[in-house]
Amino acid sequence: MKSLKIFCNFLVLITICFPSISFALETDCVVLVYHRFSDGEPKSTSTSPQIFKEHLAYLKENEYTVLPLKTVINKLQSKEKLPLNCVSLTADDGFLSIYKEAFPLLTEYQFPMSVFVSTHAIDKNYESMMTWSQLRDMAPLVDVYNHTVNHPHLVNLLPENLENEIHFAQDRISKELGVKDKYLAYPYGEYDDETYSFLESNGYIGFGQQSGVASQESDFLNIPRYSMSGPYAKMESFILKVKTVDMPLKNIKPKSMIISGDFKPRLDLVFSRPLTQYERNNFACYVSGKNKAKLEWSGLQSLVISVEDPLGVGRSRYNCTMPFKENGRYYWFSKLWLRL
């Protein structure tokens, strides 16, 4: 009994002195997003089938647990533990190459994937897209979820158009495939306050296209996913991303991605624990297409991130990293901005 008490006291001491040794990895899962599986154009949204096979081989050889997206979300919401090396595969749009190129590899490795489809292209039998029959053929290894009807930019849509884009797609997927889960991937990763509120009031889970790790502390209306298309699909980038850990944050402001005014958005972060001096000194944020962001610290637990020059029209990101306790691994957080 005495030895048990000593051991418990030791665990408490370790947790206090080394907060990064906590059980954070049991509450994290890296979610990846692909689009086309092709060696052709457009390069920016394509992943070579050979590279995809190398991704799957790496996950198997290094004993990663590849879970269906639904399993990951359910465990995160219910605060259940996840495997230490957890990954979930997703693909957006519903291109035919998912069926012809990716699905045979998923079958070979017996890894699940979730596909977000835009229903209009399927209903119109576009030759570059999958059919409802092909989507059914991939069950149960591949789940199918909502990517709207027409894949529009959802920002500034009229309320009735927004509702139609989301509800009509959900109805078609439910009718064709029996899907009841309300999972929606934002086209282009974009949303405004009205879209965000619509998903919240209608019981949806939202998935973005900003990089980062899904965790119990994630915003379930904007789950991060790492892009695995174009240059991001290279093995060096892939290995770095699947080893990342959720940044220990408890408060992020603003939630909105829409920027205006001087187009120099301010991002306020509050960490869930005081950082070590080493972590603070090695915390870095980069602005897409620009240099490092400006960091203004308040002690070891909060900071303001800003940029010297206005962000350009379209999407921009603040990408932030911090060393994890294991060499070669990083905490990761990304904020997506949209200038109209």
CATH superfamily of the largest domain: Glycoside hydrolase/deacetylase
Compute the average pLDDT. Answer: 93
Order of helices and strands: HEEEHEHEHEHHEHEHEEEHEEEHEEEEE
Number of strands: 19
Largest sheet: 7 strands, mixed
Overall tally of domains: 2
Name of the CATH architecture of the largest domain: Alpha-Beta Barrel
Q: What is the strand content?
A: 25-35%
Radius of gyration: 21 Å
CATH topology value of the largest domain: TIM Barrel
The amount of helix comes to 25-40%
Instruction: Describe the global form.
Output: globular
Distance between the termini: 65 Å
Report on the structure:
The protein folds into two domains: 22-246, Glycoside hydrolase/deacetylase (TIM Barrel), CATH 3.20.20.370; 250-339, Immunoglobulins (Immunoglobulin-like). Helices cover 31% and strands 26% of the residues. It contains ten helices and 19 strands. It has helices spanning 2-17, 49-61, 69-77, 96-109, 119-123, 132-137, 159-177, 193-201, 235-242, 277-281; strands spanning 28-34, 36-37, 46-47, 65-66, 86-93, 113-117, 142-146, 183-185, 205-207, 214-215, 226-227, 245-246, 249-253, 267-271, 284-287, 294-298, 302-306, 314-323, 330-339. α2 runs parallel beside α4. The longest helix is centred in the middle third of the chain and has 19 residues, at 159-177. The radius of gyration is 21 Å and the shape is globular.
